[in-house]
Amino acid sequence: MPHSKTTSRLRKRQSPLSASCPSHLQKESCIKIGGILCNSLIDFPGRPALVIFMQGCDWRCPYCHNARLIPEDAEDTVDEDNVFEILRERPQAMRNLVVTGGEPTKQDGLLRFLEKAKMRDIPVKLDTNGSNPNALRQVIEKDLVAYVALDVKGPVERYARYCGTGHCGDAITESICILLENRIDYEFRTTVVPALHSPKDFESIGRMLKGGRHLFLQPFRSRHALRARLRLSREPSPEFIDVCADYARRWIPTTIRW
Ligand code: SF4
């Protein structure tokens, strides 16, 4: 996933709490970056961006294709100073940052890190699974991000089926409500998984997002799915995903992102 050329330039942490993290920040607020993509034209709408992948996720979505990023710790992580170093070397128009995961809001040091980006005038897009509405509210209230992409994995009443852990429905409902307050530019997005979704599920998803700005549907890719059962399951056909989109469009503008 991360560029080998890119990571070879980077200072890597040998352990989660390496000497590169000042002692007063250790434990409380060092962020763990499990990977980096130096140039992306598709992850931040309208902006070329550097993408960082936070290490660690609180959920276990059966179709997750980033399983390497789920454990809290990893052998090699990237020092956050390298991220700012790379961005500093770029023209201003290319100094944009996408913070994705794993799950970024799980990181104790997220706010501190985003404040550093704000001080440097770096627009940030945050990708989140919605498991931590308090953190989402804070980053919006403190004006630390320019754009949020929130995963909406399925109808809320069966959310445990999609996030792989119990007690996740209330969190996603609250996170959706925060974005529906319209204080920030945002999008909802759903990965369409034929083994887990029926087209009618997109009626429920759309209704839940009624009044929202935009829902993007993206096809499930079986190759690296977390659950072996799903690695053998079919990916959505264009016809299947079209029908799903039609159901969702009754409630919210919906686009398929192939
Ligand atoms: S797909 Fe699910 S398990 Fe994987 S990183 Fe996202 S929220 Fe976590």
How would you explain this protein's 3D organization?
By secondary structure, the chain is an alpha/beta fold. It is built from 9 helices and 10 strands. The chain is 29% helix and 21% strand. The strands form 2 sheets. It has an 8-stranded mixed β-sheet with strand order 2-3-5-6-7-8-9-10, with helices on one face. Helix 4 links the parallel strand 6 (124-128) and strand 7. Bound molecules: iron/sulfur cluster. Iron/sulfur cluster binds next to loops.
Features:
9 helices, eight-stranded mixed sheet, TIM Barrel, alpha/beta, binds iron/sulfur cluster, two-stranded antiparallel ribbon, 10 strands, 258 residues
Radius of gyration: 18 Å
Q: Bound small molecules, which ones?
A: iron/sulfur cluster
SSE class:
alpha/beta
Structural domain count: 1
Largest sheet: 8 strands, mixed
Distance between the termini: 19 Å
Question: Strand order of the main beta sheet, please?
Answer: 2-3-5-6-7-8-9-10
Strand count:
10
User: Are there runs of 5+ residues with pLDDT below 50, and where?
Assistant: 1-22, 24-28
CATH C-level class is: Alpha Beta
